[in-house]
């Protein structure tokens, strides 16, 4: 992997959600699962992390460009959100 760049949108969302600075890169590099969002064409890295006192799945949306990666946004997944997106075909396992 080349360099992972944080977009302004990602930084904004991290600030709103009080997400630690290292989370997006850690989730991208050590994802438990990876998906393609069939609606946007972007890729999603999902990892279980401790966040705000409990373990939960977090998703990082990213785009790979040549040797670099743009980390677009990050958010904690709600209960059943990942499964529903898989069932309805929006997310496909890579």
Task: Pick out its properties.
alpha+beta, 26% helix, 44% strand
Could you characterize what this model shows?
The protein is globular. It has one domain (4-93). Helix content is 26%, strand content 44%. The mean pLDDT is 95. A hairpin with a 2-residue loop joins β4 (54-65) and β5. The chain has three helices and six strands. The chain has 94 residues and is an alpha+beta fold. A six-stranded mixed beta sheet has the order 1-5-4-3-2-6, with helices on both faces.
How many domain modules?
1
Sheet with the most strands: spatial strand order: 1-5-4-3-2-6
Structural class: alpha+beta
Question: Quaternary arrangement of the chains shown?
Answer: single chain
| Overall average residue pLDDT | 95
The fraction of residues in strands falls at: 35-45%
Low-confidence sequence ranges:
none
- Number of helices, counting only DSSP H or I runs of 4 residues or more: 3
> Between the first and last Cα atoms, what is the distance in angstroms?
17 Å
H/E topology pattern:
EHHEEEEHE
What portion of residues is helical? 25-40%
What is the molecular shape?
A: globular
The rounded Rg comes to 13 Å
What's the topology here?
Elements lengths: L3 E3 L1 H10 L5 H7 L3 E5 L5 E9 L2 E12 L2 E9 L4 H7 L3 E3 L1
Parallel strand pairs: 1-5
Antiparallel strand pairs: 2-3, 2-6, 3-4, 4-5
């Amino acid at each position: 992997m080349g360099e992972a760049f944080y977009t302004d949108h990602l930084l904004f969302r991290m600030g709103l959600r009080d997400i630690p600075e290292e989370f997006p890169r850690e989730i991208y590099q050590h994802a438990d699962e990876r998906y393609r969002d069939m609606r946007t064409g972007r890729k999603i890295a999902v990892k279980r992390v401790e966040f705000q006192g409990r373990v939960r799945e977090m998703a990082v949306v990213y785009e790979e460009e040549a040797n670099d990666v743009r980390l677009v946004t990050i958010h904690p997944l709600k209960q059943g959100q990942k499964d529903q997106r898989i069932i309805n075909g929006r997310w496909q396992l890579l």
